[in-house]
Amino acid sequence: MNDIFDKIRQDAGPIGRHAKASHGYFSFPKLEGELGPHMTFRGKEVLVWSLNNYLGLANHPEIRKVDAQAAKDWGLAYPMGARMMSGQTKYHEQLEEQLSEFMGKEDTFLLNFGYQGCMSTIDALLTRHDVLVFDSECHACMMDGARLHSGKRFRFQHNDMESFDKQLEHARKVVEQTGGGILVMTEGVFGMAGDQGKLKEIAKRKAKYNFRLFVDDAHGFGQMGRDGRGTPDEQGVSDDVDIYFGTFAKSMASIGAFISGPEDIIMYLRYNMRSQTFAKSLPLPIVIGAMKRLEMMRTMPELKEKLWTITHALQNGLKADGLDIGKTNSCVTPVYMKGGVPEATNVVMDLRENHGIFCSIVVYPVIPKGEILLRLIPTATHSMEDVRRTISSFKEVKKKLEAGAYKAETIANV
Fold this sequence. Notes:
Blueprint: H1 4-10, H2 19-22, E1 31-32, E2 38-41, E3 44-48, H3 61-74, H4 90-103, E4 107-111, H5 114-125, E5 131-135, H6 140-148, E6 153-156, H7 161-178, E7 182-187, H8 199-203, H9 206-209, E8 211-216, H10 231-235, E9 243-247, E10 257-261, H11 263-272, H12 274-277, H13 284-299, H14 301-320, E11 333-338, H15 341-354, E12 357-358, E13 360-362, E14 371-376, H16 384-402
Parallel strand pairs: 3-12, 5-6, 5-7, 7-8, 8-9
Antiparallel strand pairs: 1-2, 2-3, 4-10, 9-10, 11-14, 13-14
């Protein structure tokens, strides 16, 4: 009999095998100071492009005031217990009503966390007789939701409608035998590449294949659509999205999430989502703070306008200087370069140590071997000077990478 710890010690996984060398710098880094574009990393001030704080609400004075007052009034413990038992309040209900009105849906259910909430929604919607069809680049929470599904599942190539049609045909044949239904899931905005899901083209196929559509719009809620109503609104297909998933962790700069949809389906999910039934309710300061954030999203369009001003300046400037930002059509700004993991770490060290720029690094296995993705997240609190400085630094780093300056056999020594 083997000790389960033995295999863990022998195989830490594709990312974990770099843990000893990278921990605290490339992975699990500590950004300190006031949340915003300029923070401190290892004692040095850096220009930060790695916070999903799209509208700049994370450190907004009005938000800080409401959060502090709510914590003073209620504390972080209230309410105690799961909502089904003892954790329900009128404020939870008010936030759900406000979100339903904002999203144009019949009902909404608050979720404690985005990741577990998304997984649990998928699990609750499906039985073993049903078929799940999903985009190959769906977020890990959706992939893990798919893994929970005990029935058939088919994955189509990213945003490839020919591949999508083929998988729908497979799904239809299965449900003709099982008597189940089809759930299609995709994202509004894909968080790594920044491209939007082809919601309009997917929706056109609903009548032919009789499926329901689940959209994870974590990166679209707040930055896309009228007043931030999300990517389905941006593409004019809100009514075709049966279950809309949004998170508070990005544009709303908080924690928690929600699902909106038909009243009877949302009520079913209230009573059948295990991650909510058996988990403590969202603390009241989070709920009250979320209502303030939603109010500011609806009544302060200048926040979204500033975000997109910075986004356009950043993306257009990077492209003008020959940098590859892929097919993004959202605020998410990837910069693609060529090289292995050692080169990627040297690029990041140069950016942080010599240019004072902090951004997220993405390498294999998240993206193919030989590619480097540096992801920039613009916010409404960045300045045009921040943009100018970043474009100049990336141009210089790209030139050095192509000249072989970052070649190495092992990852950078930090």
